[in-house]
Design brief:
alpha+beta; about 140 residues; globular; 7-stranded antiparallel β-sheet
Amino acid sequence: MKTISLILLTLFLGKSCTNQSQNDITNTVIQYTADTRGYHLKMIILNQKATISQGVGTENPSEEIAISDSDWKEMIAAFHKINLDEMPNLKDPTQKRFYDGAAIANLKIRYQDKNYETVSFDHGFPPAAIENLVNKIVSLAKEKE
């Protein structure tokens, strides 16, 4: 009887932790921007929805799309692999943005009432620590096109 109770308690606590991590990212705001002369992309992700504004100039209409369950699960997995406290210290792998070779990109995350932000990096060449999340975000914008 004790063994069964222990197994049920373990399953219940494990499920609670999973639900808590789901709720944490549900209330998290992720903002990705990429700008250069003549190009603008801004994505805000909140609660399995993405608001996307892209095109020439900054005065573009926004469009809201729903994120599929499979894409959302991939984003959650990528998000949980990031050390948020290290985000300001991430090194950019390339500097193409210095000579207009790439748009200037930035990732901002508001998680549990704290703001985390990367230094600028090249759009299409994110730091390795955030690469999976950034690539998933950018792929959502490409799907919308």
